[in-house]
Amino acid sequence: MDIYLLIGAPGAGKGVQSAHLIEKYDLTHLSTGDIFRHEIKEETELGLEVKRIVQSGQLVSDDLTNRIVAGVLDQHRQNGTKGLILDGYPRTLTQVHALEDYLAKYDLSISKVILLNVSDEEAVRRASGRIICSNCKKSYHRVFNQPNDGKCGECGGSDFFQRPDDKEENVRDRLTLYHQQNTPVIDFYRQHAGFFEINGELPASVVSSEIDKNIL
Ligand SMILES: [Zn+2]
After folding, report:
1. What is the DSSP code (8-state) at residue 114?
2. Catalytic residue among 112, 125, 126, 174
3. 142: annotated active-site residue
4. How far, in Å, CA of 60 to CA of 75, rounded?
5. In the chain, which end has fewer C-beta atoms inside a 10 angstrom radius, N or C?
6. The pTM is what?
7. Is 37 a residue of the active site?
8. Which residues, by Cβ under 5 Å, contact ligand 1, an ion?
9. Distance, CA 97 to ligand 1 centroid (Å)?
10. What's the burial of 215, exposed, middle or buried (CB within 10 Å: 0-12/13-18/19+)?
11. Rounded Cα gap, residues 197 and 180, in angstroms
12. Using one digit for the tens of pLDDT, what is the confidence trace for 145-177?
């Protein structure tokens, strides 16, 4: 099973590049956010624990995150998944060590580490512009992807909202947390033979072809 790490700040373009990797290399995308939401929805024991923590406004601990991710990795190993993109994991050095231990145990290793770099100003401009159709939840962008004539192309709705997470002050808080947590993770993986860094401010198609050059 090939493992790719995708690292980047909110607004770095991880969503778009994940979609590219999934399509081109037949990979499966795993983000901790999606995993947590899934566990909560399925009301697993760990999911209920996550729900309690999130509702009390706290961060999910490394230990709990590691256990949940290990469970998901187990499933993918057993199902013969071809390859995985890990997005948002590992986020701390403790998580790095847990992941590396897990991989070593099953004789797996990380193929590539992709770092998408954007300046904080660009990250804020991108992340805080996101709006969502109130009716069908399709996402648009105030600058890069405006709804035509103010109407949703999917359902024709004309009411859009911004997720609380995407408000500028919250994006700035998320960026601060991203830098605090990820700097040691990035420093760790800089030594990895498969590490490469791409300017995420380039147009998405250019970023995709840079990724391709480094993967092939
Ligand atoms: Zn819509």
Report:
1. E
2. 174
3. no
4. 21
5. C
6. 0.86
7. no
8. 133, 135-136, 138, 152, 154-155, 157
9. 42
10. middle
11. 19
12. 899 999 999 999 999 999 888 899 999 999 999
Which CA distances in Å does 10 have to 44, 68, 92, 146? 28, 23, 16, 20
Dihedral sign from CA coordinates of 136, 59, 73, 193? positive
In order of 42, 92, 179, the CA distances from 46 in angstroms are 10, 20, 27
Distance between CA 103 and CA 101 in Å, rounded? 6
Q: Which among 24, 163, 167, 190 is annotated as catalytic? A: 163
The predicted-structure confidence for 177-216, as pLDDT tens digits, reads as follows 999 999 999 999 999 999 999 999 999 999 999 999 999 7
Residues 25, 135: Cα–Cα separation, whole Å: 33
Q: How many CB atoms lie within 10 A of CB 114?
A: 27
Ordered by start, the domain boundaries in the chain are 2-118+177-215
